[in-house]
Every structure is written in C-alpha cells, then in structure tokens.
Design brief:
Length: 213
C-alpha cells in the first residue's frame, strides 16, 4: 500500500497520488453502476473504500475512518440489493421516493451525526484538521449510501449536498484528484437522479391507473 501513496503526476501544481487517483476512479465507477442499478456497484465501492483507507490512514485518520464506514455500508448495500432486486420488473432494484418519515429520520440522523462526529474530531485533533466540514462529509456519505441501499431517489440529493463541501475540502487537503472526481460526481448525480426519478414515477403509474376513480 505504501507504493500506492507515491506521486503519480502533477496537475495544475497539485500532486496526484496513485492511491487517491485509483480509489476515486473505483468510486466513480461505483456511482455509475449505482445509476444503472447494478448490484456490482457495492463491491466496487468496497474496493474504492479499501484503497482510499490506505491513502488516508496514518495522517488523515478521520478520513480513513470514513472509508472504513463506507466499506461496512457497502456490505449492507450488497445484502439489501440482493434482497430487493426482485421488486423491479427488470431484475434490478426498483427506485422509490422516501416517505416523509424516512426523510425526517435521515435529516435528523445527518444533523445529530454531524454534530457528534465534529465534536469527536475537535476532542481529538489528530483525527481531522477541519472537524466540521470533515464531519459533514463523513456523515453525509453514510446517509447517502444508506438511502442508496434502500433504493431511495433522495440518495442522489444527499450525494449532491456532500459534493458541495467535498470539492473544496479535497483540494484544501491536497487530494486534487478527489476534488476533480467530485466535480464529475456532480454531473453523474444529476443524470442519475433524473433516471431514478423517472423510473420511480413510471413504476408507480400502473398502480395509479388501476386505482378506483
């Protein structure tokens, strides 16, 4: 893993590490597979988390911890999609909108989780050099992946909110490739959200058409 933490090249005066580049390429592929509702999104996400864990471990412990949680949620997502994929007519998971109760629970979990993790980072400064945005990304990523595992369209919105902070934070941390990839994430998120949105509405239409007037 040490060899992966060596410099691959320099781009716009930013030093690109092999681990940062490879891990984020895997993450990008995982998001694209998630857009296609492929169950292989989860093992690819697990590999991305493993590589980025090695990139961050030892000097950005909080970011490394986030990747450890990402790997755990990836295992959960694989299990959940295996259980739910028969719900879709094409053999893939059927996207749906979260209920208002689920939305409220996720917003509350994100808010409380961000405060709790930020306070942990502030209590142990070695975990993060910038506790609040790092905690926001940490918790936001977990919430987004949980919503993805449950097939909720809102997971794309959660990812978009993470991207808004993730891009400047990664550049500030010296992980330029992560910053560039987060920009691409933003475009994929918009396209993926449109696709899942339309699929969720088309799936609900037959039930509405068959309902009594």
């Amino acid at each position: 893993m040490n060899s992966l933490n060596t410099e691959a090249f320099t781009l716009f005066d930013q030093h690109i590490l092999w681990s940062d580049m490879i891990g984020n390429i895997f993450g990008l592929i995982a998001l694209a597979l998630g857009w296609r509702r492929s169950i292989w999104s989860w093992p690819v996400q697990f590999v991305a988390g493993l590589i980025l864990f090695g990139a961050f471990y030892g000097h950005l412990t909080g970011s490394a911890g986030k990747q450890a949680i990402v790997m755990v949620v990836a295992v959960y997502g694989w299990w959940q999609w295996n259980r739910s994929k028969r719900q879709g007519s094409d053999g893939h998971i059927a996207p749906r909108f979260a209920t208002w109760r689920e939305r409220g629970a996720m917003i509350a979990a994100a808010a409380v989780g961000t405060v709790a993790v930020a306070l942990l980072f502030k209590a142990y400064p070695s975990l993060s050099w910038d506790p609040w945005p790092d905690a926001y990304i940490f918790v936001g990523t977990v919430v987004a992946m949980y919503a993805q595992a449950r097939g909720m369209v809102e997971f794309w919105i959660a990812w978009l909110l993470v991207d808004l902070v993730g891009v400047p934070l990664n550049f500030a941390n010296g992980y330029a490739f992560s910053g560039f990839v987060y920009v691409i994430y933003g475009a994929l998120v918009l396209w993926g959200m449109r696709d899942w949105w339309l699929r969720s509405r088309s799936a609900a239409r037959p039930a509405l058409e068959g309902a009594p007037a």
